[in-house]
UniProtKB/TrEMBL annotation:
Organism: Syntrophotalea acetylenivorans
Protein origin, superkingdom: Bacteria
Keywords carried by this UniProt record: Lyase, NAD
Pfam families: GDP_Man_Dehyd
UniProt name for this protein: dTDP-glucose 4,6-dehydratase
Enzyme class: lyase
Cofactor field: NAD(+)
Positions of the NAD(P)-binding domain: 8-329
Family: Belongs to the NAD(P)-dependent epimerase/dehydratase family. dTDP-glucose dehydratase subfamily.
Amino acid sequence: EELIKNILVTGGSGFIGANFIRLALATLDSCRLVNLDKLTYAGNPQNLTDISDDPRYRFVQGDICDASLVEQLFAEEQIDTVVHFAAESHVDRSITGPAAFIETNILGTFTLLEAARKTWGFDGRSPLADCRFLHVSTDEVYGSLGDTGLFTEETPYDPRSPYSSSKASSDHLVSAYHHTYGLPTLITNCSNNYGPYQFPEKLIPLIINNALNGKVLPVYGDGKNVRDWLYVVDHCTAILKVLKKGHLGETYNIGGNNEKQNIEVVQTICDILDDQAAPLPEGKPRRSLITFVKDRPGHDRRYAIDAGKITKELGWEPSVTFEEGIRKTVKWYLENSDWITKVIDGTYQEYYDRMYAGR
Ligand code: NAD
């Protein structure tokens, strides 16, 4: 723990980053934390209002592709630990506009690696302490599974979307900096996250918001695509474990052991809301809002993670089941309707109409 003194978190105003910053400040007493975030559509300062006055926290609005800014921050803040979340993260947007994914996910990661290499030196040690560069990635780099099998850290990369291929590229760059320059890197590949502060373009918050308001619930294809869901706070505890105890140069898969078909996820949310939220007009069950829409092109059928390595080597396990986590999540969205109202502004509405109109 004493290794971690001055953390640079990138993309900390997004969904997972905000959850991570909250957990890090609550559990690492002596650290300082700088959040570098460009505040794209996905970055929201309101995700961090409760900690923005913490004297250990500093927010910098900026782009991870801006080499001089990144190098300046490394020097000024004597950064010894990087936790790199910043990315374009939405598969659908990567299909309609891949350029931003190449820039942020590939060139942005390269810029951060270069700053670390230059500042920390070839042997990966700063004058201050041991350093760590933790790159947060996805299980989507492994491609798509059939009905059986699990992704392990040895599964060959086979990304299928512009999003996953840009993340795969960044993972390879991170490994290359370890092998070539001895940079003290760690990579985590995690399954689908859900929980508080997720932008409502992603399945779970989109369905919660629409179901709450009696709107159509768009489900891609036959609804039988399988994802392995992990409660976001459990992802963040895993990242902290890897940061403190992970072996340099290694990759750790993180997953919840919670495989669900999309349609099951949607039905579960409908039932929880029927039980906990105001009923729809005429007591209409929310499941009746489910509408199957034209599938996403190249939609991966199934992802599932074998998290055996992080469990055996580092002793990490998820703390909640899907059933518990989804209840907590629905409760959070019910109690934070102001947050949703503010994020669903004109730009979001335009995006939503473009994605789902005519499907
Ligand atoms: P998000 O889209 O909610 O947040 C991304 C954040 O990065 C935003 O705050 C955005 O403003 C910032 N950002 C984007 N481009 C930037 C740039 N050029 N410079 C600085 N900041 C920039 O994403 P998320 O869901 O929180 O995901 C975070 C990371 O975790 C990503 O790297 C993603 O690939 C990875 N991941 C996500 C999931 C998931 O289910 N959401 C699963 C596994 C891995």
